Amino acid sequence: MSNKLWHIVDVRDVADALLLVYEKAESSGRYICAPNSVCTKDLVDLLRKMYPQYSYVNNIVDVDRKAGLSSQKLKGLGWRPRKLEETLSDSVGCYEKAGLLQGSAGRNCRLPHLFRLAGDQ
Fold first, then answer.
1. Residues 71, 34: contact at Cβ < 8 Å?
2. Residue 92 and residue 116: Cα distance in Å, rounded?
3. Cα separation, 73 vs 33, whole angstroms
4. How many CB atoms within 10 Å of residue 36?
5. How far apart are CA 116 and CA 121, in angstroms?
6. pLDDT tens digit sequence for 58-110
7. How many CB atoms lie within 10 A of CB 99?
8. What is the pLDDT of residue 78?
9. What is the pTM of this model?
10. Which of 16, 20, 41, 78 has fewest C-beta within 10 Å?
11. What DSSP letter does each residue of the chain carry, written as one string?
């Protein structure tokens, strides 16, 4: 997998941000709603620590990363997003409940196609 930078936001935080912007008279312009920037390697390491029972990729290739995003303007209005660990924990719990993390016939669960391997075009 490519060690690219991911901007992760909890959908509940997006809803909170939207309501906050609508309710605050001083809000204007565009707001970036991306409180958690993490590279693939760090994300996999965090998930591995939180959920050691799952299989993870070991071959992560460094690539040029784009600049990070800032949600500082939104936080200035009083927006308080969830921590990355809470978002991941709730997401994995939801995926487990839905049966999305179960492999078939002893095979490991495959990641969605949006996660491309380093050599994929």
1. yes
2. 20
3. 9
4. 19
5. 8
6. 888 998 877 779 999 999 999 999 999 999 999 999 888 888 777 545 555 55
7. 7
8. 96
9. 0.79
10. 78
11. -B--EEEE--HHHHHHHHHHHHH-TT--S------EEEEHHHHHHHHHHH-TTS------B----PPP---HHHHTTT--PPPHHHHHHHHHHHHHHHTTT--STTPPPPPPTTS--TT--
Structure tokens belonging to residue 76:
């200035």
Q: Which two tokens stand for residue 8?
A: 């992760």
Annotated domain spans of the chain:
2-115
Structure tokens, 68: 């990070």
Residues comprising the chain, all counted = 121
pLDDT single digits (tens) 32-47? 999 999 999 999 999 9
